[in-house]
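Quick question, first post here. What does this chain look like in 3D?
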Amino acid sequence: MSQPLAVKTENLGRIYKIRNNRKEKQRELLALENVNLEIREGELFGLLGPNGAGKTTLIKILTTLLSPTSGQAWVAGFDVTKQPAEVRKRINMVSGGETSGYGLLTVRENLWMFAQFYGIPSPEANRRIQKTGRDRWHCRPAQHQILRSFHRLAPEDEYHPRFSDGSRSAFPR
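> Answer (accepted):
Ran it through. Tokens below.
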């Protein structure tokens, strides 16, 4: 019997609508077209391609950070568009080198933004950010160590770009 699917896509597509300024006519950029993919549980999988091939777009769709414009995708059996909270309970992503704009935010703002992605109400997120304790964040010991090291080494109001790539990749997302 074969392993269940960890990731599946059917005819997945993404078109970006781009306009450089308000006067310019909107144009479309095709990032993904008819991506069909099956990755089994426990399978080691690499996503390779040239710049502009849609690798980051695909990963952002699978991690629920971006919606597809066509097709469907499932992670751990959950539809990334219809059941994003269930997908997020089962995955995490560390983006290597590319911060998707997160470098513009302070540590506190990054923590708050990712709390929003996971549906934590702002007052609760702000309370947890203020305390940064393991019991308050309900995180594993390694994550708690990361949070403690950020609290100790970098004030919450410092900007993310000041940290090394390794520190940024350890940042809770």
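The chain has two domains: 5-90, 102-170.
The chain has a mean pLDDT of 77.
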